[in-house]
Structures are given as C-alpha cells and as structure tokens.
Amino acid sequence: MLDIKLIRDNYELVRENLAKRGDQDVLNLIEVIKENDFEWREVTKVVSGKRAERNSIAKQIAELRKNGEDASQLIEQTDALKNEIQTLENREDDLRKAIDRNIMSVPNILHESVPAGADETANEEIRRVGDIPSFDFELLSHGELAEKLGLADFDRATRIAGTGFNYLFDDLAYLDLALMKYAVDFMRSKGYRLVEPPFMMRREPYTGVTDLGDFESVMYKIEGEDLYLIATSEHPMAAMYMDEIIDEDTLPLRFVGISPCFRREIGAHGVDTKGLFRMHQFNKVEQFIFCTPETSWQLHEELLENVEQMYQGLELPYRIVNVCTGDIGTLAAKKYDLELWFPRQNKYGEVASCSNCTDYQARRLNIRCGKQGGDKRIAHTLNNTAIATSRTMVAILENYQNKDGTVTVPKALRKYMGDKEVIGR
Known about the structure:
The protein has 425 residues and is an alpha+beta fold. It has helices at 4-9, 11-19, 24-66, 72-103, 142-148, 154-161, 170-189, 203-209, 212-215, 234-238, 296-313, 360-365, 389-399, and strands spanning 124-129, 152-153, 167-168, 193-195, 200-201, 228-229, 245-247, 253-262, 281-291, 318-322, 334-342, 347-356, 368-370, 376-378, 380-388, 407-408, 422-423.
C-alpha cells in the first residue's frame, strides 16, 4: 500500500501518476482518503487540546480539594469533557479505519518508464529472442499429441476433478519434474536459496501480500478454516518476514520457491481448449527478493535476466514486453512479461511476469529493514517466475514437435530425463 504521508504531502503528483491507469474509481478513492486524512488530523488536534484542557482542570480540582474548597463545578466540566473526548475519539478511530481500509485498495505508484495504454495491446515490445520454427506438416495441438502418445488423460481428470485438471504419465510427468529441477539448479547456481513454502495461508498474511478484493475470486478457500490454497509460492515467500525487521547488512535476500499453484479462474480459452495451457493446478518455480530501496531497480533487471537465460537454455523463442498502465495490476511499479512463442496459437503468450513492487507489498506486510541501532524503513520486494511448467511444456510439445509425432527433448533437460533425447519413441 502507499504511505499516507506520500498522499498527504504530494497529492497532485500521486493523483497524476494514478491517473495513468485510467481508473476513475481509484482517483475518487484517493480524494476520499485525502479528505478523511485532513479531517482525522483536525480531529486529532482537537482531541489533543481537549485532553490538555481536561488535565488542566484535573489539577485545579486537586488544588481545590487540597484546600477544602468546592470543586463540583469543575467536576461537571470534566464529565462533559470526558463525553466530548469520547465522541471525538470514536470519530478519530472511524476515520483511521476508513483511511487504512481505503488505502489498501489504491495501486502502487508507476515507474516513469511504464507505457500508457488501456490493455495488453499497448504493452511495449522490448526484444525478441530465438527463431520462430516452421513446419512442413500439420502441427498437432499439445493436448492431442499428449493423448496420442499416452502421456496425458484429460477426460478422466475432468470426471474426477472437473476441467482444468489432468493426469500426466511417464515422460510428460518426467518433463514436468525435469523443468522444475532445471530451474532450481539454475537459480541455486545464482545464489538463490531454495524454499518449499506452506501451500496454504491464513487470510491476514494474504491480505498483506495482495489485494484480496481483486484476487479472492481466483483462490480456493478451505471450508471452515482460515486458510487459502496458495496461487503461487510468491505469496508465502512475501509473507515470510511479516511484522519483522530485516538486518540491512543481510540484504538482498534471494529466494527460489517451488510449489504447486491453485487457481479457480483459468480465463478464456485459446485455439486449443483441451490441455495444459490454462489449469486450476500447476507447478511453478518462482524467484523472490527482499532488498533495500536503493537496489531494487538493479535487481529487477537481474530477475529478468535470470528467466531469459533459462529460456535461452531451453532454446525456445520468446519476446520481452514492458507491461502498460492498464495491464500492470495493483502491486507492481513496473512489470516485464516474458512471452513464449506458441505455434498452434500463432502468437506469443505470457509465461513469466517480472515485477518490482517497490515498498508497496512490504508496507502492507509491515516488513522493514535497517542497521542495528539505526533508523528503520520499509523494504522493497520483487518477484518473477522462473519456470511455470505447464505452459513451458505446451511450448516444448509444439516447438519441438516432429513429423513422426514424437517430440525432441531440449538439450538442457536431457540430463534430468535419463539422457532421453526424444519423447514418444
């Protein structure tokens, strides 16, 4: 969330920045926050004055009683002041709660380099890497190919769990594991600490991690429990230091998380409705960093470089886009997407989102940093996908598909698959 002092002291700049998102409701909300904050500060001043007045009268009453004089009139004034102060304190508390509630729904301040635009069509392409393959045969959809090779069963999974779930067998399950091990080994070689986090979280930390008003509709709630299945390992990693102070000398803290991800909403289908592209359950390896404000923009580029190197190692064509104001979401100040080439859809599709959340997420979670005995400040947090296995498998099954219905295993994954070179033979 934003610092109330930022809105208070730089209101026009904040409003100008948030206006780039094209959301009038957000602009209305910060106007309400500004008005409530002004009233709260005025009420606080009055309360402080009334308390001082009450304390002064209390001293007078004590002096009168000491001298054996009548203090009844002053006692009546004190009682009236007590009721007045209570009413003002109630108003002060109501205003504070309204400010805290509303400010949680205000998006992050955007970096100046974020392109303007209403939706993903305005995302700015930065570069393309890798050659788009051509085929002299009719390409099978990844789902059709997986079933033909006996490596997946989508129909049985639908009968027992509903759409968006699957059974993977043999080499396709092996490929899933290989991708995770490939990503974990790569990230550990870069000095990232491996984390297997809790796969469920309570509501309080989840409210700190993300805006549940936007996100709760896509999450699975455990009936009768204060628990949600995680949508990504980013969330429990972000909450790991909730309400803590991190020694600044230990920063940056680099983590690589591995977990299944659970999401109710899987979005609109593309050309192929059956398969792995949009799932309620999938595996993902995630990058996450806690750092100082001075280093977050440099580390944002590091996270992007990491995922690019991994997909270059897989020799899959991709592009990088700078996500525009209307598509960036609430938490990030700037976000890059890595989009793989999917031949069946004949377009690039997002597989990794690299976000610098600056101090927005850490302020919600009350995560601070500082030197021992020194001043404390809000830390910065960043995240990026390392490998989302399901969509990466789609890209492999399509880009590496052979005319005879087999699939070539990317060279970087062969050591994780018993040196297997081809799937389906």
